[in-house]
Structures are given as C-alpha cells and as structure tokens.
Amino acid sequence: MNSNETNRRASFSGRLGFVLSTAGSAVGLGNIWRFPYLAARYGGGIFLLVYLLLVLTFGYTMIVAETAIGRMTRKSPVGAYHSCGSGKMLHVGGWINAIIPILIVPYYSVIGGWVCKYLFEYLCGHLNAVAGDGYFTSFITNGVSVEFWFIVFSLAALIIIYAGVENGIERVSRFMMPALVVLALIIVVYSVTRPGALAGVKYFLVPNIKNFSWMTVVSAMGQMFYSLSIAMGILITFGSYMKDDVSIEQATFHVGFFDTAIATMSGLMIIPAVFAFNGGDPATLKAGPSLMFITMPNIFAHMGFGGPVGILFFVLVLFAALTSAISLLESAVSTLVDELHWSRSLSTVIMAVIMIGLGTLSSLGYGPLGAVTIIGMQFLDFFDFLTNSVMMPIAALFTCYIVTRVIGIDRIEEEVTKSGMNFRLKAIFTFMIRYLCPIFLAVILISSIANVFGFISM
Ligand code: PHE
To answer: Going from the N-terminus, what domains does the chain have, and what CATH number goes with each?
Structure first.
C-alpha cells in the first residue's frame, strides 16, 4: 500500500496497487489447498464449470458492489454500513462482515502451521518420509506438534502485523506471485504428463452431469466467497483505499481472473496426480483437507529434484498463506481500532489471544480433542462451515440489501463510472443483485443449515 494520504486515509498508488494487494489477499490457501480438494470431492469438471459460472456472475457482482461501497464511503465495513444509513439492520450487517475474518484467521493459521511443518521436513531432507502412508494423519493427530507449528505461523503473521511492514510485504509480493505462477506451471506440466494422469485431467476439466449434486453448488459458492475474499468486508476496506480514477470494473476483473487462474492450476497440479499415483481412488479423491498434503509429497518423492522443488513449493504456499492471513488480521485489527477505539497494539494483543484460543481448538480437533464435535464436525470443519456456509451468505445478503434498498443502483453506477469508463455490465449487475443473488443466497443458506441438521441430505 502506498503511504500517500488522502484525507488521512491511505490509498493505493493506482490500479496495480489495488490489484496486487487484493490479489495477495485473494490468492492463498483457498486456491492451492481448498479449491482442489473441493473440486475432487464434489464432482471434478462439473464443480469447475459451476464455479466458473458463479465467479462470472455472482462473484463479479459482489466484488464490484463491495469495492464501490468501500470507495464511496472511504471506510471499513462497520463504518461503511453506518454511513450508508442508520438503523439496526445496517449495524448488524456491518458487524457480520467484520467478524468473519476474526473467525477465519485462527483456523487459517492452523493450516498455515501444517505448511510450516512440511517446509521444515523438506528443509531437513525428509523427502520420502513425508510421502509415506499415514504420515499426514499421524502428524495432525499429534496435538503437540500441530499446536507448535500453528503457533509458529501465528507468531509470524502477528509480528508482521504488529510491525506494520506492509511495504516490505508488497515488495516481496511482486516477486513471489510471479514465482508462484512459474513454479505451478512446472508442476502442472510434470503432473499431467505422468502415466495415468490423463484420466485425472479429464475428471477435472470435463463436466460430467452424473457427478453433480446440490453440494456441488453449495461448496462452489462457499469457495467462491472464500477465494475472492468477498462477503467479509475485506474488499470494502480495500475499495476505500482505491483512487477515484481507477476503473472498478477493470481492476476487479483482473483480481478475479488471477485468482481463478491460480485455483485452476492448483487443480491441475493435484487432481491428475491423484490418478497417476492412486489410480483415481475415490477415497483419495474425497480425502478433503489432507489432499494437498498427501498428493504433493507423493509427486515430489517421485520426481527428480523433488527435495528442492518441495522446498520451493512450500515456501511459496507459505508466502501465499501469510499474505492472506495478514490481510485477514489487518482487517480484524482495524475493525477493533476503528469501532472500539482501542490502540493498535492492544487490538493486536486481543486478536492474538482470540487467534491462539480459537485456533488451538482447531489444531487439537483432529487429535486430543477428537472426541469433541459440534453438530457432528471437528472444530476446524465447524469454523469453516460456520463462516463459509452460514455467515458469508448472510453478509452477502446484507450487501444485496444495502445496494438495492439503501444506496441504490444509480449511486453504484455513479461510483463505477467515476473513472470515466462506462459501467459495461450494468444490466447483469442489476439483475443479479436484485433478483438472482438474494434468492440464491437464501436457498444456499437454508439448504446448508438443513443439511447439517440432517433435515435433507445433499
Ligand atoms: N482468499 C484467501 C484464500 O484464498 C483467504 C482469505 C479469505 C484471505 C478472506 C483474506 C480474507 O486463501
């Protein structure tokens, strides 16, 4: 972020500043770890198709709406909602947006800890050990080790936030993001050319309606929010740093494109490898959160230079995870500073306590706390479900409400066209935000809750 101050508020230097920072937040574990396992689990090609359609319609609409709200109010979510009008509804809406990052960052850091652990093992040269059967399970069920690595990752993120070295992070980001793309390309080529991998490429790229279920839509939708960092106030905050002469439509398009490209590449790294090494075993495909930690080590153990490539891969994943965790923390801390008027250091300390407390539940959830479940889920899965399937649809519903009923589409158009560009997709935007988004959100919300409580099975 540039340190230019306009009206005491920091602003990005231009479109590139916005795109890079937002992409740094958007590209993270969601793309490399979460997207491939959801795609593998919920239908392969049909999941990808549904996801792409959602990004182009729904994602586009929400991303533009949130960025415009941020830029017109020049505030972070609670304040932004407040300055659009008064009333309890808006207050609640602002806070829901603001609380989501506070709930995500603890369990996000647990996965960040898993990445640190794997990086460490590669640095020690334990290339074959980590690819061994059952290695991952024995790691995550070992409470002490998981907790240790979770704290390592959390401290790294907290120290950066405390020191506020945003500039440093951004400078590194410029180099790391392209490096991530190049490395991903190399691994994709390696992965898809393994004998037997083609079936995986087909499974991931060719939609097969037989694999479709309602869960395909629900999970693709939750993933879209998560990956694009929408429905959690982040884009409102980033929009508030955006200068008036930057085209909202263009800038958000670039972010969405980049984010989706990285997710698709991650799918192509991981899913074909499942076919090459496990013959497309359905149990492996449905493995869930462990998928990346099992298939990637398998690839590295079989390829030449697997050790160095493994190190590089986990360094880049760690970096992507850190930039995302930092943006989550930054938004949490700034909410506490802005709304509760605490100092930045007090807010950071309070966030550290919340993070370690909630994160510990998630980190021990597969091991010592394995017997404790909430509505049938381990803590980590529960927090993931609560934020992605329940709170984000609610936050997005508020955004639809505020745009259509409080601010008005004309005002959004005024904001989008401030840069001198036309609002090219206004018709789609209007239709989506008025009708399709709210209906869809309500259906998703009700069905995912009903599913968890066993009223329906998806
Ligand atoms: N979008 C990030 C990812 O894909 C996660 C994230 C969510 C980051 C919310 C910031 C805010 O990993």
So the answer is: 19-452 (1.20.1740)
